[in-house]
From TrEMBL:
This is GDSL esterase/lipase. Belongs to the 'GDSL' lipolytic enzyme family. Residues 1-22 form the signal peptide. Coiled coil: none annotated.
Length: 368
């Protein structure tokens, strides 16, 4: 009998050891799951600018510059995806930046009624396709001027204070990661399109100085409103956009070097302006994002990203189509956008947006 009791005791001990081991394994699983959930590096991503970062604000305004219809968004296979008003086949740079910083996969447009202040507390886009640093630029296609984006930012802060109390709102605004991407429309849709008369007022160099002064005023304004960690995206190689190549028929559809020269000179000056602001405004962590050289490098060496076409867009003929001209009726739209640099005649594909987002994320990580 004593021997039987000893056996029972051993069995009990063994069961207890197995139970302890099971608990430890479960704890490891829970810890691993928790570790896999990336802690957000910042409380929110806040975005200003034009179509390079607009995630759908133009849907809510009376303008012809929209993209809330197929084939736009055809590769955006996420909840809330599809043709959202993003000028792309999929996600935009703010979306990828948000994901990289541990925040939601999509950054909503402020004017999208499908989202509330609860959603905007972790990310919001005020950008409007067609907008620019020059307020006159927005009038060309009746979109939101930059000053209106700032007004919405002020309204957002009031709503945020009601949602998470004033201290919570202040924390989000001051610690958020900001993306500002704007300027291309000022040159291509305003100055060189000859519709606003700016070309009669300024030489190209003078207009660049004017735009930089506007950028400095804008950056100072959002600083006074609480922004502290801001990335400012330089101009791309504008002369290499498919639409501009198409218009350059006399030179065989090559890049328009005049436009690229303007972009390079502007970028040099804007970096000088940003250095001045960093020295002037205490605690202002301002970083420049170079898309010009990244764009030229990919166009010159498309094999680096596995691209087959860097001169035309995927949508329709890829030469002039954008907005309503890029629609689901065209039989020429490519099947695999990942082989293209451009989605339409003006905007990159999702693959290139992801690529450019890495540069923005890197710049942000250096200032947060």
């Amino acid at each position: 009998m004593a021997f039987r009791q000893a056996r029972l005791s051993s069995t009990t001990v063994a069961l207890l050891l197995l139970l302890v081991a099971a608990v430890e394994v479960q704890m490891l699983v829970v810890d691993a799951a928790s570790a896999s959930k990336k802690k957000p590096a910042v409380p929110a991503v806040i975005v200003f600018g034009d179509s390079t970062v607009d995630t759908g604000n133009n849907n809510a305004i009376n303008t012809v510059l929209k993209s809330n219809f197929p084939p736009y968004g055809r590769d955006l296979h996420l909840p809330g995806g599809g043709a959202t008003g993003r000028f792309c086949n999929g996600r935009m740079p703010p979306d990828f930046v948000s994901e990289a910083l541990g925040l939601p996969l999509l950054v909503p447009a402020y004017l999208d009624p499908a989202y509330s202040i609860k959603d905007f507390a972790t990310g919001v886009v005020f950008a409007s396709a067609g907008s620019g640093l020059d307020n006159v630029t927005a009038s060309v296609l009746a979109v939101l001027p930059l000053w209106k984006e700032v007004e919405y930012f002020k309204e957002y802060q009031q709503r945020l204070a009601e949602h998470v109390r004033p201290d919570g709102a202040k924390h989000i605004v001051s610690n958020a990661a900001y993306i500002v991407s704007v300027g291309t429309n000022d040159i291509l849709e305003n100055y060189y399109l000859l519709v606003t008369g700016r070309i009669l007022e300024f030489s190209p160099s003078e207009y660049s100085d004017f735009l930089i002064a506007q950028a400095e005023e804008f950056l100072t304004t959002i600083y006074t409103l609480g922004a502290r960690r801001v990335t400012f995206v330089g101009l791309p190689a504008m002369g290499c956009l498919p639409l501009e190549r198409t218009l350059n028929v006399l030179r065989g559809g090559s890049c328009i070097e005049e436009y690229n020269t303007v972009a390079r000179e502007y970028n040099v000056r804007v970096k000088t302006m940003m250095a001045r602001l960093r020295a002037k405004l205490q605690g202002f962590r301002l970083a420049y994002v170079d898309v010009y050289n990244s764009m030229v490098d990919v166009i010159s060496h498309p094999e680096k990203l596995g691209l087959e076409n860097v001169s035309e867009g995927c949508c329709a003929t890829g030469k002039v189509e954008m907005a309503y001209l890029c629609n689901d009726v065209s039989p020429f739209t490519c099947h695999d956008a990942d082989k293209y640099f451009f989605w339409d005649s003006f905007h990159p594909t999702e693959k290139l947006n992801r690529f450019f987002a890495t540069g923005i994320t890197k710049a942000l990580l250096e200032i947060i």
